[in-house]
Amino acid sequence: MDKTIKELEAQVVADFELFDEWLDKYEYLIDLGKKLEPYPEEDKTEDKLIKGCQSKLWLNFKKHGDKIFFYADSDAIITKGIISLLISVYSGRTAKEIAEAEFAFIDQIGLKENLSPTRTNGLIAMIQKIRQLARENQ
């Protein structure tokens, strides 16, 4: 059986607790970003860009049945890692599950406090876009 969003969020928190230093956590994020599925060049369009990110970040999705599958790319390695983290938790879920998710694990791992203000704005923009796409596709 698939893990619930809460279980996946708890797994992310546990994964981050393995590292004592934020430098190691950044390395982990970078590794996650390197594992993202390739993003189609033809989808790197203006309408797929997330506004509010310092770097370029494209986010798109496909629906299969009642589930939403996200895919993304960025020209910045940390940003790519952050969106990869979000995709690992929320992709493959129903729009309702995503729309109702609290995204609380972001605060639990201390991500906002350890990013630059512009990257924090980008993270907030990512979360808002994922929620918006979920609401629009319920």
Descriptive overview:
It contains 6 helices and 3 strands, in the order ααββαβααα. It has helices at 5-17, 22-34, 77-90, 95-100, 105-108, 117-136, and strands spanning 57-64, 67-74, 93-94. It has a 3-stranded antiparallel β-sheet with strand order 1-2-3. Strand 1 and strand 2 form a beta hairpin. Helix 1 crosses helix 3, helix 2 crosses helix 3 (77-90) and helix 3 runs parallel beside helix 6. It is globular and about 40 Å long. The model has no long low-confidence stretch (mean pLDDT 94).
In short:
This protein has 138 residues and is of the alpha+beta class. The protein has six helices and three strands, in the order H-H-E-E-H-E-H-H-H. Strand 1 (57-64) and strand 2 (67-74) form a beta hairpin.
The percentage helix is 40-55%
SSE string, helix = H, strand = E? HHEEHEHHH
**Main beta-sheet annotation:** 3 strands, antiparallel
Kindly provide the radius of gyration, computed on alpha-carbon positions and rounded to a whole number of angstroms: 14 Å
Mean pLDDT: 94
Total DSSP E strands: 3
Low-confidence stretches: none
Percentage beta strand: 5-15%
